[in-house]
Amino acid sequence: METTEKKILVIGNSVKDVALIEKLLSDNSQLKIYATSQSRFMNNDSVNFVDIREDNPSELLEFAVKNEIALTIATSYKALNSDIVSYFTDNGQAIFAPELNACDFALDKSLAKKFLYKMNIPTPRFAIYEKEQLALDYLKNTNYPVIISCAQNSEKGIDRFACPTEHIAKTFVGDLFYRNEPKIVIEEYVYGHEFTFYTITDGYEVLPITSVANYKFLKEGEGGLLTDGIGCYCHDYKVPDEIENELMSIISDVILYCQRKKSPYVGILGVDCVLTREGRLSVLGFSPFFKDHDCDGVLKLINNNILDIFEACVNGIFADEYDCLNISEKSCVSATLLSRYDNEPILGLEDIEHSSISYSNLKLKDDKFYTSKNQKLVLTSCANTLTRARNNLYDDIEQVRYKSKIFRSDICAE
Q1: Which CATH class is domain 191-321?
Q2: How far apart (Å, rounded) are the C-alpha atoms in residues 123 and 283?
Q3: One-character DSSP codes across 3-26
Q4: What is the per-residue pLDDT across 139-184, written as a single tens digit (0 to 9) for each?
Q5: Do the first three CATH levels of 6-97 and 125-188 match, i.e. the same topology?
Q6: How far is Cα 163 from Cα 141, in angstroms, rounded to an integer?
Q7: Under CATH, what is the fold of the domain 125-188?
Q8: How far apart are CA 84 and CA 56, in angstroms?
Q9: Distance CA 114, CA 110 (A)
Q10: Who's near 73: CB < 8 A, 6+ residues apart?
């Protein structure tokens, strides 16, 4: 009997979507995937590019209905902010993602901070301002360093800065308001170990996935620009069981809160945290899906069929089908390679032996890749031990050659 292909629509346009599509294809032999990201799948017969903007829910809905899409997966912040989930569910289309009213706190830093304060969840001291002068007055009497960011979260991760002095902080605040940012967040910088704890939920049942150690500063030793993530490793051996248990209790309260406002949170929920030098937990914010720098590593650790899990969450059988997830005991290490300049030929990608490759915003000319200032080129290595995964990763990074290559050389070095 001939098996019918199942059609999946992935809405996003970043590195994490490449990793997700790779996982979907590796778990399922009979899939036809439509994606708003074309990245590395232009020559793959199983993946079709959809030329519709991520924040155009009406056209995406029309496409899904016309093409008989079995499940849509939305990873994009733009898509979630457009409330695409409500569009789809109101029209009987299955979609794996949280609706806007459920995940607004994961998309807006100011809402996240207010939410954390309201829920009595430990978080760094913060202030939210809509007027420049009030923010400048606050900076005169605060302790440094501080983290200043736009209220609206961005997948680009460029609208925030770690400010060590009042002068630098005032300059950055002035820049943000000059660009007509409607609202900014100023928060205390907490010293410690940064990580993200990921879970999956159908809006009622919550299961843990893993903790991921994050490297966010561009330079070794936590220096340079602050990014959304420049590298990671998982599982994060520095996060003890009692901290993960504390986080599961926090997330359960968050899910219950969403239930009470009649907007169950369906999807991936990540909690961005710092484990302080005193061993205490401090929550920085939330993520509505895996991030670019860690998505491939986390997905490699999930031995379950990821599509089956997503469908179970959407169809309301998650709690019946899963008591826990089958998570590998292997270790993954990832690094993001950036570039200072455009149009440099990238050599050596074909010589990579141990790592998988995910990327966005690379330029392709005559079947050759070239750099761009906005590129994200993520290499991920998986092995039985962290040490082996790290060594394999950096062996592969050496194979990738272009003049202005930027990466952290100290990931998982401690």
Answers
A1: alpha beta
A2: 5
A3: PPPEEEEEE--SHHHHHHHHHHHH
A4: 999 999 999 999 887 655 556 789 999 999 999 999 999 989 899 9
A5: no
A6: 14
A7: Dna Ligase; domain 1 (3.30.1490)
A8: 8
A9: 6
A10: 8, 9, 10, 11, 20, 95, 96, 97, 310
φ, ψ for residue 85, nearest 5 deg? -65, -40
State the fold for domain 6-97. Answer: Rossmann fold (3.40.50)
Residues sharing a CB contact under 8 Å with residue 10, sequence separation 6 or more, in sequence order: 17, 20, 21, 24, 33, 34, 35, 36, 37, 72, 73, 75
Task: Please give the Cα distance from 122 to 283 (Å, whole number).
Answer: 6
- Please state, in angstroms and rounded to a whole number, the distance separating the CA atoms of residues 242 and 324: 18
Q: Is the dihedral of CA 114, 117, 120, 124 positive or negative?
A: positive
Nearest to 334, CA basis, from 289, 392, 374? 392
Structure tokens at 50: 């959809």
In terms of residues, how long is the chain?
A: 414
**331-406, what's its fold?**
Glycinamide Ribonucleotide Synthetase; Chain A, domain 4 (3.90.600)
For residue 144, how many C-alpha atoms fall within 13 Å in the half-sphere facing its CB? 14
Residue spans per domain, the chain: 6-97, 125-188, 191-321, 331-406
**What are the distances in angstroms from CA 366 to CA 39, 147, 166, 370?**
15, 43, 49, 10
Would you give per-residue pLDDT tens digits along the chain (414 residues)? 445 789 999 999 889 999 999 999 999 988 999 999 766 555 577 889 899 999 999 999 999 999 999 999 999 999 999 999 999 999 999 999 999 999 999 999 999 999 999 999 999 999 999 999 999 999 999 999 999 999 887 655 556 789 999 999 999 999 999 989 899 999 999 999 999 999 999 999 999 999 999 999 888 877 777 888 999 999 999 999 999 999 999 999 999 999 999 999 999 999 999 999 999 999 999 999 999 999 999 999 999 999 999 999 999 999 999 999 999 999 999 999 999 999 999 999 999 999 999 988 888 888 889 998 888 899 999 999 999 999 999 999 999 999 999 999 999 987
